[in-house]
Amino acid sequence: MDEIVNRVAQSALMVFDLEDYYPKQVKSGVDIAQWLEEGFLLKEKDFREALKNHDWTQYHDHLCAVYCSTDAILPAWAPILVSSYLASEAYWVVLGSPETLDTQYYQNILEHLDYSSYTDKPVILKGCSKKPVPDSAYVAAIQKLQKVAKSIMYGEACSAVPLFKKSTTKL
Questions:
Q1: What is the pLDDT of residues 56-91, one digit of tens each?
Q2: Residue 98, C-beta contacts closer than 8 angstroms, at least 6 positions apart
Q3: Which of 60, 67, 116, 133 could bridge 129 with an S-S bond, Cβ 3.0-4.6 Å?
Q4: Where are the beta strands (DSSP E) in 12-114?
Q5: Is the distance from CB of 142 to CB of 152 less than 8 angstroms?
Q6: What element of type H or E holds 143?
Q7: Distance of CA 23 to CAs 26, 31, 53, 101, 160, Å?
Q8: Is 64 exposed, middle or buried, given 0-12, 13-18 or 19+ CB atoms closer than 10 A?
Q9: How far apart are CA 153 and CA 146, in angstroms?
Q10: Which helix (H) or strand (E) holds 104?
Q11: Residue 93 pairs with which residues in a beta bridge?
């Protein structure tokens, strides 16, 4: 009887799994509307007092998205002021919806990774995440990998979809 050989394990395929970079920190949304009169009106004195009295320690080491859930028209300094309070506690702060937080987090992580280990290698951009990795992270990842990889496929080794193959034509 022939021995079963795992050709995937023996291949030069490298897996790039975005779940490896999924944030370990708690994610929190900080809604400015909670400090506005009826959720819409910013009274500077009351706003500043509310921020001063807020318990910012609850965001210790969190990833925070500063946003406003109402259609209030805010002065540009309002979210900046909220962020200044978060800066002493939070791990990272972004301006935008909680959904924007993951997108910006991955953009930042992927911008600073070293991709040299993927140089001239076939790469699988692992899909089927168990964690909510945003689609934008896959778009950002392929842009980075395409600069170095020999080829890129998406999915799992058993059912990968080809996405990119480096041209080997020479002039």
A1: 999 999 999 999 999 999 999 999 999 999 999 999
A2: 27, 28, 29, 65, 67
A3: 133
A4: 14-16, 27-31, 63-67, 92-95
A5: yes
A6: helix 135-145
A7: 8, 21, 29, 10, 26
A8: buried
A9: 11
A10: helix 98-111
A11: 64
